[in-house]
Amino acid sequence: MRISELPIQPWARALLDYRLENQLEPHTRCKPSGGPRQFLTPYGVETAEMPDLKQIIIMDLGGPHTYRVIYMDGRPHPVDLQPTYYGHSTGKWDGDTLVIDTVGFNEKFWIDRQGTPHTEKLHMTERLTRTDYNTIKYVVTIDDPGAYTKPWTSGFNFRWTANSELFEYVCQDNNYAPDLMVGAQEFVDRTSKIVP
């Protein structure tokens, strides 16, 4: 969905407009990114399914060295969640599609690189389907009555690469983004929607 088409509340539109002009994205400061932004990390993510534990782990090793647990054992979300970057995720298989239901987010990350905002009321449903050997279709439904007037859906395709391993990347040691964003460098290319 295009940013101009979002069913966004006025305060959230003002925040989004500010973020579009001031690209001080939390991810570039080694903070975890929940939702769609997790899958668009510059150095990739790694996914591990652990059937014995009834969990799927998504590891964001190329940035903040964090991981997200998706509980596949049918448990409900806890009633009194402490908000976090990744929230609390439960999952199930719908045929060949992994359906992830997540609540309990904090407001410290951006949904995407553009700066799409959310509140702690965010309820996110993600659907991941492998459409061919190398492609995973990602569809997300954002239901956040704190920031939007109605739920909305968006998505993208990303590449799956077999037999590859993520390389070591220490976010803070290699983090040149703050210098670039606060003006120490003369030029920052912000045309890419993926690389921070």
Structural features, described:
The protein has 3 helices and 8 strands; from the N terminus they run ααββββββββα. It is mainly β and 196 residues long. It has one domain (3-181). It has an 8-stranded mixed sheet. The longest helix has 12 residues, at 10-21. The model has no long low-confidence stretch (mean pLDDT 85).
Mean pLDDT: 85
Low-confidence stretches: none
Strand order of the largest sheet: 1-2-3-4-5-6-7-8
Strand count, sense and barrel status of the largest sheet are:
8 strands, mixed
* CA-based gyration radius: 17 Å
Summarize the helices and strands and which ones pair or pack.
Blueprint: H1 10-21, H2 36-39, E1 46-50, E2 55-60, E3 66-71, E4 88-94, E5 97-103, E6 123-132, E7 135-143, E8 152-159, H3 177-181
Parallel strand pairs: 3-4
Antiparallel strand pairs: 1-2, 2-3, 4-5, 5-6, 6-7, 7-8
Give short descriptive properties of this protein.
single chain, 196 residues, mainly beta, 3 helices, globular
Put the structure in a nutshell.
By secondary structure, the chain is mainly β. It has helices spanning 10-21, 36-39, 177-181; strands at 46-50, 55-60, 66-71, 88-94, 97-103, 123-132, 135-143, 152-159. The two termini are 20 Å apart.
